[in-house]
Amino acid sequence: MSAADAPASAAVPGPVPARGPRFVFIAGLHRSGTSLLAKLLAAHPEISAIANSPAPENEGCYLQGAIPHTARHGIPGHYATDPAQHHIEGCRFDTLATRERMLAGWAPWFDPASPWWLEKSPVNLTRMRLYQQLFPMSQFVVILRHPQVLACAMRKWVDRPEAELTDYALSAYEQAAEDARYLHAITLLRYEDLIAAPHATLAGLSAFLDLPPHPPQIELRNGNADYTIEGNPARAVAARLARWGYGDGGAVGRFEPLVSHPLRAVRESTAAALIAGEDDERLLNFG
Fold first, then answer.
1. What's the pTM value of the predicted model, to 2 decimals?
2. Is 209 left (phi over 0), alpha (psi -120 to 50) or beta?
């Protein structure tokens, strides 16, 4: 989409500055809280996000034509473990032409004066390594949610047993953790911590982006309380849940957020804020 084709509701900027803005990509499975997190971050005065677009949930994957996104791509409950949708450095999309076409599609939807452009699409979870190659100064925020709760939530959309969807979520998280080893700037946090301690979580994310804190202006609710988990996971599944601080039946325990950044000061300030949120007494009674 060119600037001339953009609807009146979209920003119509000039050329993208050579030294910025920088992208922050929000990633996570469907029903994990990506839209909520994007809304909270986009409220920051120094972050611009896609809004009032024709795309579902203002997801940027629909607004670019460089990487195909058809009805067979990004399917809830399927895409994150599909090897064909795991795009990394050196893949066929790792080209200057891809970068330029993506920027041409996205730029009309952002404020060129903002230092950060926020793009949120669940499929970002399988594209982080590619996006780092295309946009080397980009940073990534991955949000997780208890896999058993996530499975219940996805059952509204996906005709798969809850046990299969739980395994799907865990496999996706494990792949994201492996991909994180290749990324310069990424933080991985949980939906439950965002809900339990929103101020601390957003302070941590502001520190991650080297921005002043901006408290959330909306009230949050515990969406996990909408679901009842039935049955006990197998021992192997319980061990995989424990890696992320999760227990049976939607239980939530302690979890040290993953934080990677080239600057130690940013790593430390981000981790300190996120861990402070872990110590919030509300988290002890979550679930």
1. 0.89
2. alpha
